[in-house]
Amino acid sequence: MPQSLLIVDDSESMRKILMRMVRISGIFFDRISEAGDGQEALDILATDPVDVILCDVHMPRMDGCEFVQKVRENSDYDHINILVVSSESSDKYVGQMLEHGANDYIRKPFDSQNFQAKLLPLVV
Predict the structure, then answer these.
(1) 44 closest CA partner among 13, 93, 8, 20
(2) For the CA atoms of the chain, what is the radius of gyration?
(3) Tens digits of residue pLDDT in 54-63
(4) Cα dist. 82→56, 67, 68 in Å?
């Protein structure tokens, strides 16, 4: 079954790194979209549904916590798996993201094996 991915991060270079990590992991997505913050990501979701989201925590306009919460409030998005990818390592933020509905959390920096191990269960 074809899968689609949305990468949500305010850093363009980090979005490129994440795309590269996806390729290195060997996980295939037939479509990859990008958003610079949570609001832009919600706008994309409204017209272009996805299966998996990689999401940062700290972003302008709408941060990752609010974005994950809004995604989970919409039953049309129940099928979407969310992996938070962030340098924010405090247990408070990790717990908040998981509490709001993220499926998993990976802390930066990470290696390709760790990334693949977190992403693979969300696409199978």
Answers:
(1) 8
(2) 13
(3) 999 999 999 9
(4) 10, 11, 8
